[in-house]
Amino acid sequence: MKATSNLKVLSNKQLSRRYWHMAMDSSSIDEKIEPGQFFNIQSADNGSYTPLLRRPFSTFRINENSLEFLYKVEGPGTAKLSEYTPGDYINLLGPQGVPFSIKEGTDKILLLGRGVGIATLAALAQKAFNQGIQVYAVLSARSHDDLLAAEALKDYCTEVVHVTEEEQTSGVDNVREIMNNLITFYQIDAAYTCGSRRLSVLLQNIIKERNIDGEVALEEYMACGVGVCYSCVCDVVRNNTVYSVKSCEEGPVFPIDEVVFA
Amino acid sequence: MTKTDVNLAVDIGGLTISNPIMPASGAFGKGMEEFLDFNLIGAVVPKSITKYPQKGNKNPRACETFGGMINSIGIQSDGIDKYLNHTVPYYQQYDVPLISSISAESVEEFEEMSEMIAGSPDVAALELNISCPNLENNGEAFGMDEDITYEVVHKVRQITDKPILVKLTPNVTNIQKIALAAERGGADSLVVANTLLAMAIDIHSQQPKVGNVMGGLSGPAIKPVIVRQIFQVREVSNLPIIGCGGIMNADDAIEMILAGATAVQVGTASFVNPSVMKDMIEGIRAYMEQYQYQTIYELVGKTMDRI
């Protein structure tokens, strides 16, 4: 029988105007944690109902005895999370969901991330790097200030390309050109994305044209995170039939060619 | 008094359950079994079933509000055939009764589905979810109309001797009239109640926060409304009441029992903590030991005696 875990906060720091980084002691979690999986974190103090629901977060870095999360303060849940200090305990449910997969024989992968979605891909970059796989990344954000995970990715990536709105380099056409150049030049085997529907659609088209594997980590609104509430459904196509599936249970990572992007 | 002196078993209209805690339909499913031993709870109540497969409403389907959440799932369903062939057999591995929640679009469909569901020997009781829109009545919920409530329950009563639980909608002016109509129709138990019709708007996008514009509010914010409705229904009906709406812990469950409920259903709380029903059972037991009650019945509606 699984249970929720109370993990000790090791650090919780504001990195920029909107982004925070939190590390927790995960030595009590026996289950293997894979990139792309998520934890449903209870941001409210025990017994308080404000905020009421848990918030799903994918891991930014998975270490032997600690977990790191990168999060953007957007609403009351993440605002509450930013108030925790080292030594506090936070209740987590997880790891949940289907992780990213790396096929055997993969030598080079390409990541396409936007905003906080970059954090989800960082854990994948970390795992791929440790397996001797070369990692390339195209990271998109509103501004340079929002490209915080880019620094962490440098440790795992052979090449990282930044595109931002403030530099007017994040348009789909430009990103498509960058992606195609990287795929051609480095002979990329598989590509992964998270953080933007617009870029996910772009990657979906690219992997079809280039005949490479691709996966996407979806970010649907979740209430329960355990496959009960049907809040986080998305449409996928399998054998020419559209299915409505729960992204907490059958995802959040899907083969990108299956997903119907609204 | 020792623990063995406390008896948590209750009868809800002919169905005896080992304790008064069960899930609310829609907030329960296989995904929770990793966190909760289903054999501990009073009954299992899988998500409401519709006759045909239906996709449910468009995203976003849920949003959080102060002390609650609004959902507009729209009863995503695989249809009654899959329910009978897969869902019902699946829950036979657990040694607790299965209550089937039925959602239909017409009185005839309620009859037809009830006949199919009641025909399964593995279904212990039927829950008629009359909070869903009645397509024969401009989408107004069956449970908003006394006559239609009576008609649905009466028709289903002719079909089966199995216990019929009627899940009332709280979105009515006078819940007592609807409760009495269900009782006249032959209900064995009344579930009081369901989510409250609600709406939330994102002031930045200026759009509704759920795709279906309106949805059902659940969570601790609605509990006082539901406690009031349990109390009011208890004033006019002796049918066993199953309280439902905003129960987050054992204290909330006890409050509903004191208002007149015999059992309770737990929904949103399981989203916060999927093993919370186990904690509630233990909490009720501890309360009974503390105040030296031997049965739940000593508590049911007790607040009426205090007024």
Structural class by SSE content of chain B: alpha/beta
Based on DSSP secondary structure assignment, what is the total number of beta strands of chain B?
15
Biggest beta sheet summary of chain A: 7 strands, antiparallel
Q: Looking across the biggest beta sheet of chain A, what order are the strands in?
A: 4-3-7-1-2-6-5
Structural overview:
The complex is a heterodimer of chains A (262) and B (307). Chain A is an alpha/beta fold and 262 residues long. Chain A folds into 3 domains: 4-96, Beta Barrel (Elongation Factor Tu (Ef-tu), domain 3); 100-217, Nucleotide-binding domain of ferredoxin-NADP reductase (FNR) module (Rossmann fold), CATH 3.40.50.80; 220-261, Dihydroorotate dehydrogenase B (pyrk subunit), domain 3, CATH 2.10.240. Chain A has helices spanning 76-81, 117-130, 149-154, 172-186, 197-210; strands at 5-14, 19-25, 38-42, 55-58, 61-62, 66-72, 89-96, 108-114, 134-141, 159-164, 190-194, 213-217, 233-238, 241-246, 253-255. In chain A, the strands form 3 sheets. In chain A, strands 4-3-7-1-2-6-5 form a 7-stranded antiparallel beta sheet. In chain A, strands 10-9-8-11-12-15 form a 6-stranded mixed beta sheet, with helices on both faces. Chain A has a two-stranded antiparallel sheet with strand order 13-14. In chain A, strand 9 (134-141), helix 3 and strand 10 (159-164) form a beta-alpha-beta unit. In chain A, helix 4 (172-186) packs parallel to helix 5. The N and C termini of chain A lie far apart (37 Å). With 307 residues, chain B is α/β, with parallel strands linked by helices. Chain B has a single domain (10-55, 75-195, 220-305), classed as TIM Barrel. Chain B has 9 helices and 15 strands. Chain B has helices at residues 80-90, 107-118, 146-159, 175-185, 223-236, 250-259, 268-272, 276-291, 302-305; strands at residues 10-11, 16-17, 21-23, 62-65, 68-71, 99-102, 125-129, 164-168, 189-192, 196-198, 201-202, 207-208, 215-218, 241-244, 261-266. Chain B has a 7-stranded parallel beta sheet with strand order 3-15-14-9-8-7-6. Chain B has a 4-stranded antiparallel beta sheet with strand order 4-5-13-10, with no helix packed on it. In chain B, 52% of the residues are buried. The chains are: A alpha/beta (262), B alpha/beta (307). Chain A binds chain B through residues 1-4, 42, 49-54, 77, 93, 220-221, 223-234, 244, 248-249, 262, and chain B through 26-32, 34-37, 47, 55-56, 59-64, 66-69, 71, 73, 76, 219-220, 248, 268, 270-275.
